[in-house]
């Protein structure tokens, strides 16, 4: 699911943060005073209708009010000579690469905030200046079956919050687990388990109810997938998803979804 595999699903709807493929111009500064700690800050155009403002993706349009982003993170159990999937890319390796010995349990935690000083309307359409979003994420290896290997269990958790008076979907919580190499004979396979909680703010829910709409609460989404490395260059990943209170509306029946993705690496 997108909030686990890419980014929180309410970033554009609440704060107009840039997203792929509707990217906008921006710049970032990252400082890593140690191999385990980093801080970074960036500014990017907060285009509110990016597909119309830059229909081809090559105009690099700067429109509306800017987004200012800040993040700090701490990593542990990761040698700077080893690649990592969490946090920023490691600094260039200047020492002799270290061969992993023993069982290692890498992890990372990061917190950040985004601010946009533009105009944002409440449910009644009355605009006020400025909106912000705060978030936190943590990832941790919980179990390793073998020394010098990542075979085992990893877990991740994330949350974000933005004021509900101007953001319709103002809270999102994500949680997931990944089993690396679930079978000894399938060293490159993965099992993924995910959960996403998305809440409609009380202000928007109350206003919609006054207009005769249903009372909206939260949507809960669950996923189970299996990443099968058929060959070194071909991956196939069937996935099952189950949505409770679809669209945060408890009157809508729960919805199961079955699909798959595949990837070929040349």
Short description:
Helix content is 8%, strand content 48%.
Which short descriptors sum up this protein?
single chain, 266 residues, mainly beta, eleven-stranded antiparallel sheet, 4 helices, 11 strands
The dominant shape is globular
pLDDT below 50 for ≥5 consecutive residues: which ranges? 80-90, 93-99
Mean pLDDT rating:
90
Number of strands: 11
Question: Topology, pairings included?
Answer:
Elements: H1 2-5, H2 11-15, E1 26-31, E2 37-45, H3 50-53, E3 66-76, E4 107-121, E5 127-144, E6 152-161, E7 169-180, E8 190-200, H4 202-210, E9 218-231, E10 234-244, E11 255-264
Antiparallel strand pairs: 1-2, 2-3, 3-4, 4-5, 5-6, 6-7, 7-8, 8-9, 9-10, 10-11
Outline the structure in words.
This protein is mainly beta and 266 residues long. 8% of the residues lie in helices and 48% in strands. The protein contains 4 helices and 11 strands, in the order H-H-E-E-H-E-E-E-E-E-E-H-E-E-E. The protein has helices at 2-5, 11-15, 50-53, 202-210, and strands at 26-31, 37-45, 66-76, 107-121, 127-144, 152-161, 169-180, 190-200, 218-231, 234-244, 255-264. Strands 1-2-3-4-5-6-7-8-9-10-11 form an 11-stranded antiparallel sheet. Strand 1 (26-31) and strand 2 form a beta hairpin. The longest helix is centred in the C-terminal third of the chain and has 9 residues, at 202-210.
């Amino acid at each position: 699911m997108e909030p686990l595999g890419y980014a929180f699903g309410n970033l554009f709807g609440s704060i107009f943060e840039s997203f792929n493929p509707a990217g906008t111009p921006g710049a970032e500064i990252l400082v890593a005073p140690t191999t385990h700690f980093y801080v970074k800050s960036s500014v990017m155009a907060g285009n509110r209708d990016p597909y119309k403002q830059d229909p081809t993706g090559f105009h690099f349009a700067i429109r509306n009010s800017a987004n200012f982003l800040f993040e700090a993170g701490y990593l542990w159990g990761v040698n700077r000579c080893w690649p990592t999937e969490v946090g920023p890319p490691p600094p260039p390796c200047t020492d002799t690469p270290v061969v992993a010995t023993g069982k290692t349990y890498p992890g990372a935690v990061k917190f950040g905030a985004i601010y946009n000083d533009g105009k944002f309307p409440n449910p009644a359409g009355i605009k006020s200046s400025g909106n912000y979003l705060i978030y936190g994420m943590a990832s941790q290896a919980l179990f390793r079956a073998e020394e010098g290997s990542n075979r085992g269990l990893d877990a991740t958790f994330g949350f974000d919050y933005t004021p509900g008076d101007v953001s319709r979907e103002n809270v999102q919580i994500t949680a997931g687990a990944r089993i690396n190499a679930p079978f000894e004979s399938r060293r490159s396979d993965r099992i993924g388990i995910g959960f996403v909680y998305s809440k409609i703010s009380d202000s928007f829910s109350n206003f919609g109810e006054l207009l005769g709409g249903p009372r909206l609460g939260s949507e809960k989404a669950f996923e189970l997938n299996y990443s099968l490395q058929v060959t070194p260059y071909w991956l196939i990943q069937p996935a099952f998803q189950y949505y409770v209170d679809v669209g945060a509306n408890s009157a809508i029946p729960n919805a199961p979804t079955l699909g798959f993705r595949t990837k070929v690496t040349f």
